[in-house]
Design brief:
Blueprint: H1 2-5, H2 7-27, H3 31-55, H4 60-90, H5 101-115, E1 123-124, H6 128-144, H7 149-155, H8 159-171, E2 176-177, H9 188-211, H10 216-237
Antiparallel strand pairs: 1-2
Length: 238
Amino acid sequence: MKIVKQIPNTITSMNLLCGVMGVMSVFEGNLDIAFYLMLAGALCDFCDGLAARLLNAYSPLGKELDSLADLITFGLLPSLMLYKCMDMYHHGAWFCYIPLVIVVFSAVRLAKFNTDDRQTDNFIGLATPACAMICGSFAVISHLDINNIAGVFTASTWMIPAASGILSILLISEIPMFSMKLKKGAAVEMKWMRITFIAVAVIAVAATLILGQHFSHAVLFIFLAYILINVIHAVISR
């Protein structure tokens, strides 16, 4: 039974390994491989929680290990991917390092999550995996085709630094953001927000396939829509 209880921690460790390998891929200039490893880490991040619930294998160790793995895969890795994008255009200028603030705010976000009992069903602030998906997908789009709009943004001196600042603020904000956990008694507006998000995701995937674009376009659009849906809801609610 003790071995079974370690299954969630083993999956979490695989998430961490994906993040470390992704960082190595960034330094080798393989942003596409780094993104695939980020997605693999996200899958492990989903599965470790699922395994913990199915096996009733919750532990303080697992909670802390999960945050450490997330900091690498969804904090350090995406910030380095944006840094690499800027470095390819600006040859090491000082502002290329601005995206690294994302890893700092991701650490704060994860620490807040571990100490905030309000976030059992939904999130307060942008979750680190969602932030990472936006950064990673954008970096891949820019990397694969420098002539597209993402390449234009990357070539700009201020676009990525500005986006990094906005994402960092969202990470530690007090904006309620829905999770995809399905529980009885969920608020009606949260249910409709989830339905809207799923509909947008289906449309994004379909449009990407029809237009013959790389799947990272769908990932970017889906998670930008996730932020927009939550921000609009927060503004209307106030």
